[in-house]
Fold this sequence. Notes:
2 copies of one chain form a homodimer. Chain A has 159 residues and is mainly α. In chain A, 62% of the residues lie in helices and 8% in strands. Chain A is built from 7 helices and 3 strands. In chain A, strands 2-3 form a two-stranded antiparallel sheet. In chain A, helix 2 packs parallel to helix 7 and helix 4 runs antiparallel to helix 7. The first copy, chain A, is globular, with a radius of gyration of 17 Å. At the A-B interface, helix 1, strand 1, helix 2, helix 6 and helix 7 of A face helix 1, strand 1, helix 2, helix 6 and helix 7 of B.
Amino acid sequence: MTSEMTVTNVITAEVLLENWQGHRRLTRKTIEAFPEDKLFEFSLGGMRSFGQMALEIIGMAVPTVEGVATGKWASFHAGKPASKSELLELWDAQTVGLNEKFPTIPEERFQAVDKAFGQWEMSGLAVIQYAIDNEIHHRGEGYVYLRALGIEPPHFWER
Amino acid sequence: MTSEMTVTNVITAEVLLENWQGHRRLTRKTIEAFPEDKLFEFSLGGMRSFGQMALEIIGMAVPTVEGVATGKWASFHAGKPASKSELLELWDAQTVGLNEKFPTIPEERFQAVDKAFGQWEMSGLAVIQYAIDNEIHHRGEGYVYLRALGIEPPHFWER
């Protein structure tokens, strides 16, 4: 690794947020693709339903950005949505919240190491990237559920 | 979106490569977790085997970085590995290749828009991010295969 690489800045906060929201649009389509009666019921290999995974993803979005922005780490209690439409309402509220709060992150907090949610010692950037990667990971699992149900998932490249 | 955000640089090329290699270490563990006779045979919902997905991931790594670095987009023909150990050999060769070639990417090529592999018009950074996201996505699918086979996948947070 040359020292030249260390100073090459390739991603702006704006691109990072847009990338995240692009993934969130695709995950929203994935939620929509599930039949109402399968979203919270169907699973494979003893895993959680995709509805439960979506609740985890919802719970990580705004609290992660608030924690990175302010150093205050609070869990989000999404409650128990009883239907696909209630889940999508929660989803859309987080979309708005992300767009509002992400631009308030002070530049130095992306690199600053903090104890995220009281347990994960990493930079603000790493916590945000973890939340995005975690979403992509679980959505991939959801794609297998959909295929096993005979449903074609949304195109991966459409954001 | 404030103009302040536009100029906030949060990820260096070095961090991007390390993040990618961290994901690649986890995908390697996922390959290793498959029983020899299931890696290229088992699938769910009419999808590809995880071995076939891993070959796609292998085929996207170094060719993506070479294309971003040089503007020359060449497909990688991984051949048909007949065993887990042959697949892992290919994997490890790409790991070395990535570490060699990534630092040769000229800074301006991350933002420059090119026609990746003759068909995807996007910035160098977007092509690289797509390759990483695609790997996370397919690895998530592989996790469901493993669970359905009664095998515990590697911890997602261990890189």
